[in-house]
Amino acid sequence: MIVRSRRARAMALSLGAVLALTTACSFGPPDPDEQGTPPNLPKPSAALPSGESGGDQEVAVTVLAKNLEIPWGMTFLPDGAALVTERDTGRILQVGPESDANGLKVTEVQRLAEVQAAGDGGLLGIAVSPKYPTDKTIFVYYSTAKDNRIGKLVLKGALQPILTGIPRSRDDNGGALAFGPDGYLYAGTGDATATGTQAQNPKSLAGKILRMTTAGKPAPGNPVKDSLVWSSGHRNVQGFAWGGDRKMYATENAQPKFGELNVIEKGKNYGWGKVDGTGTDPTFTNPLRTWPIAESYCAGVALVEQSVASACLLGERIWMLSVTGNGTVLGTPQALLTGEYGRLRGLVSAPDGSLWASTSNQEDGGKPTPDDDRIVRLVFSGGGAGIT
């Protein structure tokens, strides 16, 4: 069903860079000659308000998959199929590109017996090798009974750890995992404490963003030679992404007062556990944007042109910010889907330009519906995500 919105002039302003992507105005993926053959997607199931003031801008939301169990990481294979991890079951699922009566076809690829889920630990981030057409390799971030690890595998094959000893706890295990535009593998870790002592310890892997080779070794050009650490002073990094200008954005959640969206720079210290939100100590790098924790606690991050989106758990929304070329916020951030789908965790840019978000309502604190957990697709009318 399509529900017309009467409230989005502010959104149209803040998404100016997004909406400038195209002059077309219908929903759906790009033409095949522009973006490749897209999966056979279901039709939009709802069009929801995209802002808080007057106008007629719409966001079409399509439920792509239902009845998942705490989906966590999402990434895409070259054929357009998505790989999705489930935190507690340890399963890797393939979503699409084929569809069935319920949406995109969901198939269990394999279940990783090495995963020991507890609290917010389990099977977390997932990344596809940049050389996948030849090496067929997938990388995952996962928890064991003693630590958090990063491993690699060929699907349906054995899991091989490449990095072990990342501190774990019941909470704050991080889990973000993705290849950067430089071809190296980045991982976001949690501080695994309530005090932030490990986040400020340069010898600890906790509370950091790590940068490594596909063998799990420190990447050339890291701030300190023979160290995996790219940035420090993090409480819990569960999502990051890069813009077209190679600027890196990352969320920070689980702090007592404020959720953060940070611009990540080589060797910078982001303050936890000395600072919660914006501080005055020049030793630490201030966030690009903060929100009260009840409105944020964000995880996944995705970029569309000059707009940065982050999916929030406690806030039950997607925050979207337009940013200038130098990385400052333009206008007022806008909230999407507030309260519509419950807790939102994963957020990625799909190959067709749309945004895919996952819910996290089956975990503690969630209020699952009979369809949860779900993966939904966002397409903006008039262009933007899901350009046509």
Features:
388 residues; mainly beta; Neuraminidase; five-stranded antiparallel sheet; 4 helices
Q: Any overview of this molecule?
A:
The protein has 388 residues and is mainly β. It has one domain: TolB, C-terminal domain (Neuraminidase). The protein is 5% helix and 38% strand. The chain contains 4 helices and 25 strands. The protein has helices spanning 9-14, 16-19, 32-35, 132-135, and strands at 46-49, 58-65, 71-76, 82-86, 91-100, 103-111, 123-128, 137-143, 148-154, 160-166, 177-179, 185-188, 209-212, 229-231, 240-242, 248-252, 258-264, 289-292, 298-304, 307-312, 317-323, 329-336, 344-349, 355-359, 375-380. β19 and β20 (307-312) form a beta hairpin. Residues 1-39, 50-57 and 382-388 have low confidence and may be disordered.
Summarize the structure.
This protein is mainly beta and 388 residues long. The protein is built from four helices and 25 strands. The two termini are 20 Å apart.
Provide the CATH topology: Neuraminidase
CATH architecture: 6 Propeller
Task: Assign a percent range to the helix content.
Answer: under 10%
Radius of gyration, in Å, reads 19 Å
